[in-house]
């Protein structure tokens, strides 16, 4: 049990700890699952799920350190929105200083786990306080919280994980204990390395996007992040309607988010005179621009992974249209010399990844400034998406997009073109 004041900050306790005999095996199995994930969002989802299963908790969140502050990065809350992970709270944007005044800041600063029996009754004299903003907004009631640092084997703190409210028969008296702390802290040390690796992968991808940005001002990191997040969440909603198995959904969503970030990588070979022209392209310029889909797919010619396959698929097909009027069309061999464009693919001839990224890319382009246009008002852009259902876009993809439009708005708010994320107090 925790100490009488209602919190535990990592100091030694004398009480003997009894754990499950198979807990180490369960943690090792959990880590094996994590090492197969590539995208940092999918990894955080898996980390929270595994952590909550290990100590039987109903909610949790992860803060990652970037630019010397804690960035709210992921959330689970089964009572509010289930375990699907498809909700607007995932894209809430706020930061916390690494100091002693919030629970997450205190743990990041000290590197010590923290147990709070009841966040609404933290003893006087403690430097930190619970911020109840999220509880007030959502109607959720946070009670017991276990916070652990995410520290790699080389002593690098990459973030903080908060696990909230044990799942027991008696919610009124439920709180985390020392055994929960030991289990979660051990798991967190192992998970930190996987998260650090995934963050590095994300940074490498954003650097690749930056190369495109040097050529095409519209291909920014935030544009890539928005398109990737739109695509991942639309796929999630679409796949649920299709009855696809949960494991397959998570695996594809993981890969699609990365592949969608790289959808326009082929623009690196397009002339600056075309990319930066401050007006609509003429017919010949547009024909040359269309080849960026083929050039992008060719970059993944030596396909050694499922991610390579999907990235090539997205690059090649994200400008195809449901009614067959898109490009580059049906091509037997994209690696042949003097390649002619083909007849447009139609309907299900277009892979679902291409159909989804097509909508995500167009929607974001409509709402973004370009050298040849001002951003469209949101109602006008939304009206265009609806009007193009069955023409440019797969109607089922449009339906999935509209069904999660609150999530789409949250993504757009999180990844803005200019300015840092809004700094708010902690959710916990």
Task: Give, in spatial order, the strands making up the sheet with the most strands.
Answer: 1-5-6-7-2-3-4
Would you count the extended β strands for me?
Answer: 7
Please state the second-level CATH architecture of the largest domain: Orthogonal Bundle
Extract low-pLDDT stretches.
1-8, 10-21, 419-428
Helix content range: 40-55%
The main pleated sheet reads as:
7 strands, antiparallel
Helix and strand string, N-terminal first?
Answer: EHHEEHEHEHEEHHHHHHHHHHH
If you compute it from the alpha carbons, what radius of gyration comes out, rounded to the nearest whole angstrom? Answer: 24 Å
Structural class: alpha+beta
- Quickly count the domains: 2
SS field, number of helical segments: 16
Shape: elongated
How much of the polypeptide forms β-strand, as a percent range? 5-15%
**Integer average pLDDT:** 85
Structure description:
The protein has 428 residues and is of the alpha+beta class. The protein has 2 domains: 7-197, Beta-Lactamase (2-Layer Sandwich); 216-414, Hypothetical protein af1432. The chain contains 16 helices and 7 strands. A 7-stranded antiparallel beta sheet has the order 1-5-6-7-2-3-4, sandwiched between helices. A hairpin with a 2-residue loop joins strand 2 (57-66) and strand 3. Helix 11 (292-298) packs antiparallel against helix 12 (306-317) and helix 12 packs across helix 13. The two termini are 21 Å apart.
Q: What is this structure, in a nutshell?
A:
The protein is an alpha+beta fold and 428 residues long.
């Amino acid at each position: 049990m925790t100490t009488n004041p209602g919190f535990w900050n990592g100091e030694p306790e004398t009480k003997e700890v009894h754990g499950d005999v198979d807990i180490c095996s369960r943690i090792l199995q959990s880590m094996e699952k994590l090492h197969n994930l590539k995208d940092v969002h999918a990894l955080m989802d898996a980390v929270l799920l595994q952590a909550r299963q290990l100590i039987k908790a109903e909610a949790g969140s992860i803060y990652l350190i970037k630019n010397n502050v804690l960035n709210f990065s992921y959330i689970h809350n089964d009572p509010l929105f289930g375990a699907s992970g498809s909700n607007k709270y995932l894209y809430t944007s706020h930061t916390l200083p690494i100091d002693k005044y919030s629970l997450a800041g205190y743990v990041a600063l000290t590197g010590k786990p923290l147990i709070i029996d009841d966040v609404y009754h933290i003893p006087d004299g403690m430097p930190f306080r619970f911020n109840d903003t999220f509880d007030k907004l959502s109607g959720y009631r946070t009670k017991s919280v276990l916070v652990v640092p995410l520290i790699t084997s080389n002593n690098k703190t990459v973030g903080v994980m908060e696990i909230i409210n044990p799942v027991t028969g008696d919610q009124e008296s439920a709180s985390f204990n020392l055994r929960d702390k030991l289990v979660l802290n051990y798991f967190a040390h192992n998970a930190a390395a996987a998260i650090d690796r995934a963050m590095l992968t994300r940074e490498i991808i954003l650097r690749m996007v930056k190369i495109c940005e040097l050529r095409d001002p519209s291909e920014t990191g935030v544009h890539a992040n928005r398109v990737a997040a739109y695509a991942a969440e639309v796929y999630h909603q679409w796949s649920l309607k299709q009855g696809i198995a949960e494991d397959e959904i998570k695996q594809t969503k993981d890969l699609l988010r990365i592949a969608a970030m790289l959808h326009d990588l082929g623009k690196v070979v397009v002339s600056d005179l075309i990319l930066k022209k401050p007006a609509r392209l003429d017919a010949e310029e547009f024909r040359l621009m269309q080849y960026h889909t083929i050039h992008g797919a060719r970059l993944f010619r030596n396909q050694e992974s499922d991610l390579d396959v999907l990235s090539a698929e997205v690059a090649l097909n994200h400008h195809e249209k449901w009614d067959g009027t898109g490009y580059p069309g049906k091509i037997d061999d994209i690696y042949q010399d003097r390649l002619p464009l083909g007849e447009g693919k139609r309907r299900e001839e277009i892979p679902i990844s291409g159909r989804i990224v097509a909508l995500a890319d167009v929607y974001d382009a409509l709402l973004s400034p370009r050298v040849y246009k001002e951003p469209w008002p949101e109602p006008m852009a939304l009206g265009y998406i609806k009007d193009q259902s069955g023409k440019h876009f797969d109607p089922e993809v449009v339906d999935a997009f509209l069904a999660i439009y609150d999530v789409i708005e949250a993504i757009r708010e999180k990844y803005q073109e200019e300015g840092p994320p809004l700094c708010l107090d902690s959710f916990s």
